[in-house]
Amino acid sequence: MFFNSIAFLLFLPTVFIIYWFLVNRNIKAQNIILLIASYFFYGWWDYRFLILIALSTGLDYVIGLKLQGETVKSKRKHLLVISLVFNLGMLGFFKYYNFFIESWIDAWELLGVKMHASTMQIILPVGISFYTFQTLSYTIDVYRKKLSPTKNFINFATFVAFFPQLVAGPIERATNLLPQFSVKRIFNLERAKSGIHLIIWGLFKKVVIADSCATYVNTIFDNYEELNTLTLIIGAVYFAFQIYGDFSGYSDIAIGTARLFGFELMQNFNYPYFSRDVAEFWRRWHISLSTWFRDYLYIPLGGSRTSKTKQIRNVFIIFLVSGFWHGANWTFIIWGTLHALFFIPLLMRKKNRKHINQVSEHGILPSFREFINMLFTFTLVTLAWVFFRADSIAVAYNYIKRLVSNLSFNIEYLSIENYSIEMLLLIGIFMLLEWFHKHNEHPFLGKLKWLKIIGIILMILTFGVYSNHQEFIYFQF
Questions:
Q1: Within the chain, how many helices (H) and strands (E) appear?
Q2: Is omega for the bond preceding 443 within 30 degrees of 0, making it cis?
Q3: Structure pTM?
Q4: Does the pLDDT value for residue 424 go beyond 90?
Q5: 192: left (phi over 0), alpha (psi -120 to 50) or beta
Q6: pLDDT tens, position by position, 258-287
Q7: What are the residue ranges spanned by the domains of the chain?
């Protein structure tokens, strides 16, 4: 079920009414309603994959309880290993089985050995990377004794399957979200309003910015061999805004929807395209994933409290794993490698923690230096996005090669595609709204609040893309 669908438009108020008006006096009943709604929401795609969530939930619930009662260190490790092997094994099979088989065959063919192996048509369960990492955070934190395991199975099952963020995050920690299912929720009108504002803003990002950009991106990437430098630059820049509008839009809708039911999810994006270096970009982009890797992989590897050689090793591991997490394609691994290469010079010069404050705190506009740093960082990030978007390494390489070799700046697609000027204006409006509200959660705060809300709704109705229904990009991960 998509957030930008008629089905969800009917689903959300139905659950909301039952939750707040029929069972609002009973926490357990509210959690049961949320659990049923979450399984219905996920089963809307393919009910067969509900068994995977149920198995992961049941296993980690039992392991959590056993970890609490086990004092022998070796046995505690064995319990943790069981959870890791099952969850990562399930993720690996559905997401990476064919990739490894095909890569194995390709490797032998490079040596002149012909191999034949059949691959299965495995359907990737929606959101498996997200809920797998979420439930793993529970068992790891229980193992580390940072969290006491819950004995309430309904609460735990609802935490794992909570529908607002089930399929594309934010990846919640058990330490943050799980306790909220044990606390009585009282309807708060101001919180509900802020949730609705986030949903509206997220829809604007998705159906106006991301889906409109997708029209151009798909056409340009499909025909890149025939296009000039200007058009290829536009294609790359439009994809940067497509993926940002798509993913941050989903996160805003998820956070806003959770808020309607009395829950607070973590912030997942913090205006990343205003970053002044790549290190700052990763503190602002997909925060729930980057902090997950930091806490459960980077720090256990030694983090920054080790030699420079090991720090570089750790950075490469983090970015390679991050790339591989995104998909079973070498393009994602190259994407992660590029970000590691962008990050390493900052680490070596001890500049990776330089920009931790909000950009342009003492003025309306950024300084010239800040602007150049933001432009340079955006250029690096956009260059890497070409590999993320391309179907293969060869396509990405040829795209970039033609971009720098076919130095022609004649306007091609901008003059013949419908709404081309409107697209540029919409992106400009979007960035201005973000810039002047970069200290806020969304633009619907401060002066002219209702004027901005009405304006955004009108743009959603006028410029929103509803034909050729676009699913959220991160559903594939």
A1: 19, 0
A2: no
A3: 0.91
A4: no
A5: alpha
A6: 999 999 999 999 999 999 999 999 999 999
A7: 6-187, 191-276+355-476
